[in-house]
């Protein structure tokens, strides 16, 4: 449940006291979450269901202004080969 950014320590404690520990628990017990957390509970339930109606704003990042070359490119992702 810590993956839901609006669920802080106090909200998590309230939910845990009612036996709600996971996102799946929130999905299954939506009415109880809203009763326990009020308006915040409505938002938590929407997050648990994967719903977010906020407008998406593109972010170009720190490399948008300069041409990316091998000298200034962001670091590549590291992958691990299990067959080593």
Structure characteristics:
4 helices; mainly alpha; 84 residues
Note poorly predicted spans: none
**Quaternary structure classification:** single chain
Major sheet attributes:
none
CATH architecture: Orthogonal Bundle
Considering DSSP H and I runs of 4 or more, what fraction of the residues is helical?
25-40%
CATH class: Mainly Alpha
Number of strands: 0
Instruction: Quote the average pLDDT.
Output: 81
- N- to C-terminal separation? 36 Å
Summary of the model, kept short:
With 84 residues, the protein is mainly alpha-helical. 39% of the residues lie in helices and 0% in strands.
Structure commentary:
- The chain has 84 residues and is mainly alpha-helical.
- It has helices at 9-17, 23-28, 30-37, 39-48.
- The protein has one domain: DNA polymerase, domain 1 (Orthogonal Bundle), CATH 1.10.150.
- Helix 3 runs antiparallel to helix 4.
- The longest helix is centred in the middle third of the chain and has 10 residues, at 39-48.
- It is elongated, with a radius of gyration of 20 Å.
- 12% of the residues are buried.
Please give the structural blueprint.
Blueprint: H1 9-17, H2 23-28, H3 30-37, H4 39-48
């Amino acid at each position: 449940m810590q993956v839901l950014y609006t669920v802080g320590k106090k909200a998590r404690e309230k939910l845990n006291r009612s036996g709600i520990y996971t996102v799946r628990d929130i999905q299954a017990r939506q009415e109880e979450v809203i009763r326990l957390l009020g308006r915040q509970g409505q938002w938590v339930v929407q997050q648990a269901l994967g719903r977010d109606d906020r407008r998406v704003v593109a972010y170009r990042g720190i490399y948008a202004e300069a041409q990316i070359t091998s000298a200034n490119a962001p670091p590549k992702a590291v992958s691990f080969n299990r067959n080593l």
